[in-house]
Amino acid sequence: NPNYRWYSHRLLKGTIVEIDKSQIQINTLLGRGAFGEVFRGILLGRERNGNNTDIAVKRLSKCADEQSQDKFLLEALILFKFQHKNIVKCLGISSSNGGYMILLELMLGGDLKTFLRNTKDKQTQKSTLKVSELLRLAGDIACGLNYLESLHFVHRDVAARNCLLTNLGPNRVAKLGDFGLAKDILLHDYYRKEGTALLPIRWMPPEAFLEGYFSSKSDVWAFGVLMWEIFTSGFIPYPGLQNNDVMTFVRKGGRLEIPAICPQSIYDLMCWCWQNDTVERPSFQTIYKFLVITHKKFQSDECFSNDQCNEDRSS
Ligand SMILES: CN1CCN(c2ccc(C(=O)Nc3n[nH]c4c3C=[N+](C(=O)[C@H](O)c3ccccc3)C4)cc2)CC1
Predict the structure, then answer these.
(1) pTM > 0.80
(2) Within a 13 Å sphere around the CA of 200, how many CA atoms are in the beta-carbon half?
(3) 162 CA distance to ligand 1 centroid (A)?
């Protein structure tokens, strides 16, 4: 609708950095989504000593309709406003022959769901990552969501597919990477309920898929599902159930089962996030503190056991 369009463009001019396209060099294609592509690029340094910046350039496909354009720009505006180590930074926008490009922090590890599926041992169907590494990924995202909760910003689409990794190595950091619908929509993760937009119902609590009521507490429910994705190395939630059956199953109190390698205390946290009553669910502040403590415990256990085995080896 027009005022939505006016709002997004009007707001845009005043509050986001516009970068001249002569300073942007676009290189390889990183990923392609339903609404556009993401390229690896370089932002050429202003000073002569050429301190260039590695960036990701997100471009809307020409065929995208006007509303997608607005959603795309609004996503840039939202990301540009947020400043947090677990939220992908937006450096600004650039307009080139009629379309817009969003300049974003380069995340070389790709999306979290693909990473989890690629780090699963095919034989054992178990993760090749240590429990402390899985806990750190969950803690990174919980930290970003705690920041959004403090700003009373509801994400509405918390899931591993929307998170990105700085790199694939052991010092990887997970960040929230997608706030709009300009995402690689993996259609099987979404479900079109009669007459509404595509809904990620496997990540939604009853009050959201029954009444369309979203809040930070529905983000908490989704984060519980995200933790389940992390500990199952990227399974689709409620395997074997069709979308309609998922809603019936959950409404009747059905819940995801404990993943094989998941510590009981973490599964208890997931179930806490899946309480029917929103007031019973934890805040992200509580979730984040719990994950930091549990991560430390597993880290010390693991390195203790490593020392232990090192001692054995050295003795
Ligand atoms: C084994 N290899 C490892 C490396 N690999 C990649 C695959 C994809 C990427 C990639 O898209 N990186 C991105 N950096 N910044 C942004 C990105 C996407 N963004 C977006 O805004 C995208 O819309 C988005 C957002 C969240 C999740 C997915 C996509 C912003 C990087 C490496 C390919 C497989």
Answers:
(1) yes
(2) 25
(3) 9
Structure tokens that stand for 28 in this block? 């390889």
Ligand 1 neighbour 102 (Cβ under 6 A):
no
Amino acid at 14: G
Residue 293: C-alpha distances to residues 217, 232, 264 (Å)? 22, 21, 15
- Length of the chain equals 315
Measured between alpha carbons, how far is 26 from 94 in angstroms, rounded to an integer? 12
Residue-wise pLDDT tens digits, 189-216:
566 656 556 789 999 999 999 998 989 9
Helix pair angle (284-314, 216-231), 10° resolution: 20
Under a CB-based contact definition with an 8 Å cutoff, are residues 86 and 155 in contact? no
> CB of 158 closer than 6 A to ligand 1?
no
pLDDT tens column, 241-254: 998 899 999 999 99
Check if 292 has its Cβ closer than 6 Å to any atom of ligand 1: no
Cα 229 from Cα 159, distance rounded (Å)? 8
CA distance readout (Å), 294 to 65, 165, 265, 291: 46, 21, 8, 5
* pLDDT per position as a tens digit, 272-307: 999 999 999 999 999 999 999 999 999 888 876 766
* ipTM, two decimals: 0.99
Annotated active-site residue in 111, 140, 157, 219: 157
φ, ψ for residue 174 (rounded to 5)? -95, 140
Backbone angles phi, psi at 69, to 5 degrees: -60, -45
